[in-house]
Design a protein that fits this description.
heterodimer, B: 3-stranded antiparallel sheet, WH-like_DNA-bd_sf (chain B), DNA-binding (chain B), DNA-binding PadR family transcriptional regulator (chain B), Tscrpt_reg_PadR_N (chain B), DNA binding (chain B)
Chain lengths: ~220, ~110
């Protein structure tokens, strides 16, 4: 294995994050190292020494990996924010469509809602919009703050907003589920399709929240 | 000049190097070294994440291009990047004028 490939392999082993973004960053690093080695070779240095010098100029993998990791972690969080913005409203709309298609109008149950449950449904309607709003504001903010903050500090801010958006989504689901169960457990069983979508929604919510609590490799100071 | 002294200025230096042209990563590093007569001593590996950060901030745009027969990611300034560079230059001018006035040697 060449010196450059060994170095890229070392860097690869140290990085955690979305695979496409990681491949993109490592491809560019490999290209840069190949260019640097080529420049040394053109200066009359043999291939092995040219690669060794190119790698030495690039910096120790332990140090460089921190810079790359900060960027990669941030990209992962930005990807999660997009999933919140697009995914949550899509699942919600999917559940409503499934309900209309398989169950019909709520009044069909013939059971009037108590006042407190109507208030819960209204609160749920607001809470379920909050994650998408947090996500959109965070994405805009990340772009603006990225002009003032380094990747590490921005990553901390973004990680909190991901947790807030995903947490609010889960809280909304929990509120509706607990309230409906307390009122009348049979209402949880709207239809098979609705139940499948609802379970998917819960799984998606936990999946969104999981990156916020996943330990991450040490970042650059 | 060591990497620590450059850390706060790297973004501005990268924007300046890309002013009016489109370059790939290694060409940017070469341009930095050329313009500084080799005085800029920073690990070249730090330049690539910095370019991505500037792109994320909207100051740079990048794309994969074929340069000298090889596929490379090339970068160019956006309109926001041009404004940011102009602001950095004005700020630097003011800074050097003020500090130069104090350190410049006059005892008045």
């Amino acid at each position: 294995m060449s010196v450059i490939e060994a170095y890229i392999g070392d860097l690869d082993a140290r990085l955690r994050g979305p695979s496409s973004a990681k491949t993109d960053l490592l491809t560019e690093a490999r290209d840069g190292l190949a260019d640097a080695a080529e420049a040394y070779r053109e200066g009359g240095i043999d291939e092995a020494e040219a690669e060794r010098r190119a790698v030495a100029d690039f910096g120790p993998a332990s140090v460089i990996a921190r810079e790359y990791q900060a960027e990669l972690a941030l990209r992962g969080d930005i990807g999660t924010l997009w999933k919140v913005i697009v995914g949550v409203p899509l699942i919600q709309a999917g559940w409503e469509l499934a309900r209309i298609w398989t169950y019909g109008d709520w009044s069909r149950s013939g059971k009037p809602n108590p006042e407190w449950y109507t208030a819960v449904i209204e609160l749920f309607g607001v809470l379920v919009l909050v994650p998408a709003v947090i996500g959109a504001v965070s994405l805009f903010g990340a772009r603006r703050l990225g002009r003032r903050l380094d990747s590490v500090s921005l990553g901390r801010v973004t990680r909190w907003t991901v947790a807030a958006a995903a947490g609010t989504n889960l809280l909304a689901l929990l509120l509706l589920t607990v309230s409906t169960t307390v009122l009348d457990p049979s209402r949880m069983n709207v239809s098979l399709v609705c139940n499948i979508v609802a379970l998917g929604w819960v799984a998606f919510s936990f999946w969104l929240l999981s990156p916020a609590f996943r330990p991450r490799p040490a970042l650059a100071a | 000049m060591k990497a620590d002294s450059l850390r706060g200025h790297l973004d501005a230096l990268l924007l300046a190097v890309l002013d009016g042209r489109k370059l790939h990563g290694y060409a940017i590093i070469e341009a930095l070294q050329l313009r500084s007569d080799g005085a800029l001593d920073l690990p070249t590996g730090t330049v690539y994440p910095a370019l991505r950060r500037l792109e994320r901030a909207g100051f740079l745009a990048s794309e994969w291009d074929v340069v000298s027969g090889r596929k490379r990611r090339t970068y160019k300034l956006t309109r926001s990047g041009q404004k940011a560079l102009a602001a950095e230059r004005a700020e630097w001018q003011e800074f050097t004028t003020v500090i130069g006035g104090v350190l410049g040697g006059s005892t008045a």
